[in-house]
Amino acid sequence: MPVSQRLAKALAHPVRIQILVETNKRPMSATEFSNWTGGEVSPSKANRHFKYLEKLDCLELVEERQGGRRRGGKEKIYRALQRSLFDESTWDGLPDSLQVGVTGETISSYIERLAEAAMAGTIDTRQDRHLTWTGMHYDEQAWGELIERLNELFWFSLELRVEAALRMIKSGEDPIPVTVGLACFESPRDAAVAPFELPKG
């Protein structure tokens, strides 16, 4: 099954969206996810979604713990694989209501990560960290060119992750936990944007 089709199936239910967002932050079991929802999603229902996402290669099993709900049972711990990777065809294939849900969950999890880094003090530990945002006026060509460049940068960041992992196997260097956030979206028409004037002369 093509990646875009698998992702479309994975994101076709709001509970599966939540599971992917939460297992992106930390490995968890279906029972832990159920507890996280306050029981709104039952363990059995959560387990069905977890197994479906595993079948779609969106989750991977990372650990089995002894002593699940049943005596002598095992609790399976999962984490998300290649979270939030959407090509345009996958995104266009999602209903508007699900697009809103995915966007909301992504923003929420990103804000949580920013808050964690701010509370821990790691967000300003490195003098060469990058954190900026700017409002601008673009035409359609500029919009398209920037989206293309951001997509290239995103895939480049994944390549760097692989290269770094290979180097660390040899060097024994401790990994640096890094969060990379890229965004470009249309602002409301009444949003404050500083006017840009071409230089005269």
On the 0 to 100 scale, the average pLDDT is: 84
Report the uncertain regions.
none
Helix content: 40-55%
SS class = mainly alpha
Provide the β-strand percentage band: 5-15%
The total count of strands amounts to 2
How would you portray this structure in words?
This protein is mainly alpha-helical. The protein has two domains: 1-112, Arc Repressor Mutant, subunit A (Orthogonal Bundle); 122-195, no CATH class. Helix content is 51%, strand content 7%. It contains seven helices and two strands, in the order ααααββααα. Strands 1-2 form a two-stranded antiparallel sheet. Helix 2 (14-25) packs parallel to helix 6 (96-120) and helix 3 (30-36) packs across helix 4 (43-55).
Which descriptors apply to this entry?
single chain; 201 residues; mainly alpha; Arc Repressor Mutant, subunit A; 2 domains; two-stranded antiparallel sheet; 7 helices; 2 strands; 7% strand
